[in-house]
Amino acid sequence: LQLVESGGGLVQLGGSLALSCVVSGSLSSGFDRVNMGWYRQAPGNQRTLVAQISGGGVTTYADSVKGRFTIARDTKNTIYLQMNNLKPEDAAVYYCNIAPKPLINIWGQGTQVTVSS
């Protein structure tokens, strides 16, 4: 199983970015039935879950991103994170994984999000 994140970059304060994560390989339960999530880790901080989506499309968000971030998925192999009104505290490396309990041996390389003020 492999996770490949993309879409990060440098954005101005208040700007937007759209992240994607492609899941390749096999999930025992099938991708469309697995809860997936986006995590982020800033330097010196722990990796934390910011958004998750169930196989049925039910979404939950961390309070810090609620109303600004939107997680979505297709039925094949990709999850997305639309990030709007970005703040300096959103700067981090973003990862996708199974949620809310990630598989620690399948973390991808992540995608860097930098917010300039």
Primary descriptors:
117 residues; mainly beta; six-stranded mixed beta sheet; 0% helix
Summarize the structure.
The chain has strands at residues 2-6, 9-12, 17-24, 36-41, 48-53, 59-61, 69-73, 78-83, 92-98, 111-116. The protein is mainly β and 117 residues long.
Largest sheet: 6 strands, mixed
Contiguous low-pLDDT stretches (5 residues minimum) are none
Helix tally equals: 0
Q: Would you report the number of β strands? A: 10
Percent range for β-strand residues? over 45%
Structural class by SSE content: mainly beta
For the CA atoms, what is the radius of gyration?
13 Å
Rounded mean pLDDT score:
95
Helix content: under 10%
Order of helix and strand elements from N to C terminus: EEEEEEEEEE
Termini separation: 37 Å
Bulk shape: globular
Order of strands across the main sheet: 2-10-9-4-5-6
Helices, strands, pairings?
Layout: E1 2-6, E2 9-12, E3 17-24, E4 36-41, E5 48-53, E6 59-61, E7 69-73, E8 78-83, E9 92-98, E10 111-116
Parallel strand pairs: 2-10
Antiparallel strand pairs: 1-3, 3-8, 4-5, 4-9, 5-6, 7-8, 9-10
Describe the structure in your own words.
The chain has no helices and ten strands. With 117 residues, it is mostly beta strands. A hairpin with a 5-residue loop joins strand 5 (48-53) and strand 6 (59-61). It is globular.
